[in-house]
Design a protein that fits this description.
This protein folds into 3 domains: about 40-260, Lysozyme; about 270-335, no CATH class; about 340-445, no CATH class. The protein is mostly helical. About 45% of the residues lie in helices and about 5% in strands. Pfam families: LysM, SLT.
């Protein structure tokens, strides 16, 4: 994978990646979602100058307005010129011969497509762009590439920051459904404005706009055409296949029965809604109040990296429409602590996890699990970690400036006094489920009166 470091500072570069179908977030039994009225995007003309002037969508046709599911809306808004070459045929065969893969991917997509298509229509962009996460991440918001590109739209850290996607210990908005979709569509529109051609914009999304510009200059100097297919011989294999892959998915969605596939019904209504929260809340408690499993909650809120959601009223969570009302009703009756975690800043390398565990009445494994600290590593001075709340911090939220600037710096454990606490940690680490069990135990001890559901 290439990381597009040669792009302009204004746009930066988006990581090159075809993420596998990582299915642990939401693989089966996902609820259906739905659609909105589509807008027809005017197909670009054959010259770059003309294309740049005709990017805006036409009003939705009456047929489009009558569409009853999101797949119909996507078909109604197709506007990128079709490719028809051997690479497209190759990728159609690949996708259509893997019905289980397509079923998992479309099931995950059913949570997000209503929102993505609605945003595309608002901007007057071609609706087949809603299918791009098929290629990038198989619609898995937890997807992470070897180039550290994350989320459904696969942003590398630098490009994410260029598009205001917050990345810190507590949150990575490259994975957030709403924030990353807004950033991806903004980036794609900028690339279209630059090249006046959606196929070239897609190539730049994968390869970097600087690389596409150089390829155009190369062909122009030789008097050759500068469309995608004419430039494709200059592209790396991944980019050369990128638009054909999208075309293959586009063809399958246009007529799934022709390829022996069935798409899940996605009704014409929003699947999720944004819910305000007023204070820090444990992720497991939020899921419990919404009457969702932890996996169902994480499928809509994958940006939260830690067991507590910080940010007070400035941070929203996404919930299925029917569960949002349950959340509010259950929250009104909760009457107990919503968060069991606070922060502690490491001031000295001598602060070992075993010592901290004793100070905060927990175990080393709970602290490691809550902060993603691997075994055989220690914390460097300056790190800010989650620790269980004590009585003195029971009603205190984590300050926004602390959450925004928190870092966790690690180094290899090179020995030192280990004693009984270290031996106990080693004993527990032999059980693969021990860290999860111990986090459960921490929450249970802190809120034994509440008897809320713990993280599974």
């Amino acid at each position: 994978m290439q990381a597009r470091n040669n792009t302009s500072a204004a746009l930066a570069a988006l990581a090159l990646m075809l993420a596998p179908a990582l299915s642990q977030a939401a693989d089966a039994g996902l609820p259906a979602i739905a659609a909105f009225q589509p807008a027809q995007v005017k197909a670009p003309d054959t010259t770059l100058a003309a294309k740049a002037e005709t990017k805006q969508a036409r009003p939705a046709s009456e047929d489009a307005l009558r569409e009853t599911d999101v797949w119909g809306r996507i078909r109604s808004g197709y506007a990128i010129p079709d490719l028809d070459n051997p690479l497209v045929a190759k990728h159609i065969t690949w996708y259509s011969s893997r019905p289980d893969y397509m079923a998992r991917t479309t099931a995950r997509a059913s949570l997000y497509l209503f929102h993505v298509v609605t945003e595309l229509e608002k901007r007057g962009m071609p609706t087949e762009l809603a299918l791009l996460p098929f290629i990038e991440s198989a619609f898995n918001p937890q997807a992470l590439s070897s180039a550290n590109a994350a989320g459904m739209w696969q942003f590398v850290p630098g490009t994410g920051r260029d598009f205001n996607l917050k990345q810190n210990v507590f949150k990575d908005e490259r994975r957030g459904i709403v924030a990353s979709t807004d950033a991806a569509l903004t980036y794609l529109q900028r690339l279209y404005d630059m090249f006046g051609d959606w196929q070239l914009a897609l190539a730049a999304y994968n390869w970097g706009e600087g690389s596409v510009q150089k390829a155009i200059q190369h062909n122009r100097a030789l008097g050759k055409p500068t469309d995608f297919e004419s430039l494709s011989e200059l592209m790396p294999a991944e980019t050369r296949n990128y638009v054909p892959k999208l075309q293959a998915v586009k063809n399958i969605i246009a007529n799934p029965g022709q390829y022996g596939l069935t798409l899940p019904l996605i009704n014409n209504q929003p699947y999720f809604t944004a819910v305000d929260k007023t204070s820090d809340i444990d992720l497991t408690i939020a899921a419990h109040l919404a009457e969702l499993s932890v996996d169902e909650f994480k499928a809509l809120n994958p940006q939260f990296n830690r067991p507590v959601i910080t940010g007070g009223e400035h941070t929203k969570i996404l919930l299925p429409q029917e569960n949002a009302e349950k959340f509010h009703l259950n929250l009104a009756q909760w009457g107990r602590a919503l968060s069991t975690w606070t922060t502690h800043k490491i001031t000295s390398a001598r602060e070992r996890i075993e010592t901290l565990a004793s100070k905060f009445h927990t175990t080393p494994e709970v602290i490691r699990q809550a902060n993603n600290i691997p075994q055989k590593t220690v914390l460097k001075a300056g790190s800010t970690i989650l620790v269980p709340k004590l009585a003195t911090s029971a009603n205190v939220d984590i300050a926004p400036e602390v959450a925004d600037n928190a870092v966790v710096a690690l180094e290899a454990d090179r020995g030192g006094k280990r004693g009984r606490g270290y031996k106990a940690a080693r004993r527990h680490s032999d059980d693969d489920d021990a860290p999860v069990k111990l986090v459960k135990a921490h929450v249970s001890r802190y809120q034994h009166k509440s008897r809320h559901r713990n993280e599974d």
